[in-house]
Amino acid sequence: MYFFYYIPVGLDLEVRRRASITYFISLVCIGMFLIYRYSPALGSWNAWNLVFQPLAPNPGNAVTYTFLHGGYLHLFGNIVYLIIFGRAVEDRFGPGRFYLIFLLSTVVGAYTHLLFTTLFSPEFLIYPVVGASGATSGLLGAYMTRCYFSRVRVAYWIFMPLQGVNRAGRTYVPVVFALVLWLILQGVYAVVQLGSPGLQVAYSLHIGGFAAGIALSLFFGAWTAARAENHVVKAKKHFKKANWFACQVEYGNYLAIVPSDPDAHAAIARAFVCSGDSGMARYHFIEAIRNYLNEGVRDLAEQAFAEAMRHIPGFTLDADLHLDLAYRMERTLKFKTAAAAYDNFIERYTDSPEVPFVLFRMAGILERRFQKPLKALSCYRAIVDGFPGDVWIDYAKSEIDRIERLRISLSGGNGGEQPSGVK
């Protein structure tokens, strides 16, 4: 008469990478279930050869049993947990480590069940074991360790007729609370089951898999990574609420752990821009650009460069790096940003031998891309007046003559009023 049921339906964490292994394992479980549901005896692939048999355990069966399920509800429950938590675990640990956690949790769960059953209920050793619950329990343990700061969204149903309660809905709960409660329930069920006349669910398998997931995630450095990501999560929440200084503190704590993360440098630079600290914003934009380039992500480096120039007047990098990015943006048709980069370079590095060439690049963009020949003319005159010994001086003079003749011809030869087509 009293009923309480809940099932996870989502997480509040972002998953950025495609969870290829998670989906592959899910498809294998579904395929194996359908095959052996309707053709249980397939020669040497007889289902009985794949289940984990406590009376005759072997390492092979301690792996293969996880891909078999006893019914549609059994399969559905494991697939739900696998996809919801597995995607996040694979995203944080990577495909290789994710599969190791899945595989070793499967094996540890099977032998934990064997140990508990042998010690406390040897009469149950005759029952074979199937299902991915040991592996998914390992994923739960790894997720709790790696993402302890997150929340899980659960759908619940509470039915208490004598109290007039019939309530259903969805809500977020802290993942540590949800999974510790789940683990306690597994322990209670395992103890209660010891005196029961039959074995329906191998709860001790869940406990073993969960413990294996925690141990493996800690071995893979989950605790340090979790502390770091926790700072990022808090920083993003502060940024959304316009708590700029709190956001800066959290990103600063994160960068103390992961100093070369370009995304974090770019994010904290935005927070400093919002709080009016252009000096610190400049520093972190520069670090973001350098680290993007070190990772070979030039597009993101250019985006950070363009953003920095929009928000910080006169923003420049080291001369060579600045020009390298400016030239590439011009080649990729980002003319407005390239022109701004050239202008900042000329203002900052006035004595650089590269200034005449930069002025040539500026003049070309202004005349051919923005249809502003008079501004291009000022660039050529700057070369003639400021760098009389430059190798390009004769070409600059010829360009001045060309634009002057064009201006005169368009003005009807009077040399006075500027025509509307020349800016």
Structural features, described:
- The protein is mainly alpha-helical.
- The protein has 3 domains: 3-220, Rhomboid-like fold (Up-down Bundle); 234-306, Alpha Horseshoe (Serine Threonine Protein Phosphatase 5, Tetratricopeptide repeat); 316-423, Tetratricopeptide repeat domain (Serine Threonine Protein Phosphatase 5, Tetratricopeptide repeat), CATH 1.25.40.
- Helix content is 65%, strand content 7%.
- It contains 17 helices and 3 strands.
- Strands 1-2-3 form a 3-stranded antiparallel sheet.
- β2 (151-160) and β3 (165-174) form a beta hairpin.
- The chain is elongated.
- The N and C termini lie far apart (84 Å).
- Mean pLDDT is 89; it is low at 415-423.
Major sheet attributes: 3 strands, antiparallel
SS strand fraction: 5-15%
Order the strands across the largest sheet as they lie in space.
Answer: 1-2-3
Global shape? elongated
- Average of per-residue pLDDT values: 89
Instruction: Examine the coordinates and then state which fold CATH places here, giving the name of the CATH topology of the largest domain.
Output: Rhomboid-like fold
Q: From the alpha-carbon coordinates, what is the Rg to the nearest angstrom?
A: 33 Å
Query: What structural class is derived from the secondary structure elements?
Result: mainly alpha
CATH homologous superfamily assignment of the largest domain: Rhomboid-like
Helix percentage: 55-70%
In total, the number of strands is: 3
Spatial gap, N to C terminus: 84 Å
Order of helices and strands: EHHHHHEEHHHHHHHHHHHH
| Name of the CATH first level of the largest domain | Mainly Alpha
Integer count of domains:
3
Low-confidence stretches: 415-423
